[in-house]
Write a structure and sequence with these properties.
globular; 7-stranded mixed beta sheet; about 280 residues; Chemotaxis Receptor Methyltransferase Cher, domain 1; 3-stranded antiparallel beta sheet; Rossmann fold; single chain; alpha/beta; binds S-adenosylmethionine; 2 domains
């Protein structure tokens, strides 16, 4: 891959997705784009990038950008956020007039949103289907297709899903496991780029935006966190990944006394909030 093509593609990726790669990551671009070049009928990666530059086809550009996303995820990832969420949701007083709305904002292949759905299902006051609305979004269409299907390999199932939940919420489907309808129907999937306004998704009480900010520079993190904050109810809680923070990025959130859990800053005195 020529340095010019790497530069062009890195700039396109950053502009369209916020994802940052530098010249030391050329191996990553090569490994991820080689299969796209093959399936799209280009001789090599340079031919693919030339085509993206000179005669872009939405299908090919999308596939190339999608291939650059890192989709690592698993059920109940890091456990603590889900324990904190359970504590937050265990207070029946949290429930207002409408359904509680929870957003898995970089949902990848769905394990995070389904973990939230299982957790809600096990809380008596949230077990009714219309008590909670869970929306899973991602920029990657291939991830969303898999998430909506709810089919996971044994390897994916073994990563974080307790056996009781496996038997309760999944059916064996050949070599794989398929989420039962009752679990799948608890999550709505939508394609959404975190760089864009989330206005159309509605307002949320709780947002999981975990393990995605690490791919962005500070100004992109600020833009995304401010957009997310604008879409949250007063007293809303934000969950970030273990190595992610709002500190030094935006004042839209205040830290709570629970690791990885943030509260929308102007509502830190809300009655059901964890203490900030
Ligand atoms: C490492 S996964 C994190 C999945 C899950 N949140 C977790 O913590 O296990 C990061 C996800 O962010 C998505 N992503 C990257 N850039 C994005 C953007 N600009 N808008 C929406 N999603 C994005 C990727 O497609 C990927 O599925």
């Amino acid at each position: 891959m020529t340095p010019q093509n790497l530069l062009f593609f890195a700039e396109l990726l950053h502009r369209r997705t916020g994802i940052l790669i530098d010249e030391t990551k050329d191996y990553l671009v090569k490994t991820r784009l080689a299969p796209i070049a093959g399936t799209s009928g280009y001789a090599d990666i340079d031919a693919l990038i030339d085509a993206i530059r000179d005669r872009p086809e939405a299908r090919v550009v999308d596939a190339a950008l999608d291939a650059m996303t890192t989709n690592e995820t698993f059920f109940f990832r890091d456990q603590t956020p889900f324990e904190v969420l359970r504590t937050l949701l265990s207070d029946p007083g949290r429930r207002g007039a409408g359904p509680l709305r929870i957003w898995s904002a970089a949902a990848s292949t769905g394990q995070e949103a389904y973990s939230i759905a299982m957790l809600c299902d096990e809380l008596p006051h949230l077990s009714a289907e219309n008590a909670v609305e869970i929306v899973g979004t991602d920029i990657s269409q291939s991830c969303l297709t898999k998430a909506a299907a709810g089919v996971y390999s044994s390897f994916e199932i073994q990563r974080g899903l307790p056996i009781q939940k496996l038997t309760r919420y999944f059916d064996k489907d050949g070599e794989s496991w398929r989420a039962k309808n009752e679990l799948r129907s608890r999550v709505t999937w939508k394609r959404h780029n975190l760089m864009d306004s989330p206005w159309a998704l509605g307002r949320f009480d709780i947002v999981f935006c975990r393990n995605v900010l690490i791919y962005f520079d500070i100004s992109t993190r600020r833009r995304i966190l401010d957009l997310v904050a604008g879409q949250m109810q007063n007293g809303g809680h934000l969950f970030l990944g273990a190595s992610e923070t709002t500190l030094g990025v935006t004042n839209a959130f205040a830290q709570t006394n629970r690791a990885g859990c943030w509260i929308k800053a102007d509502a830190s005195a809300a009655p059901h909030a964890l203490s900030a």
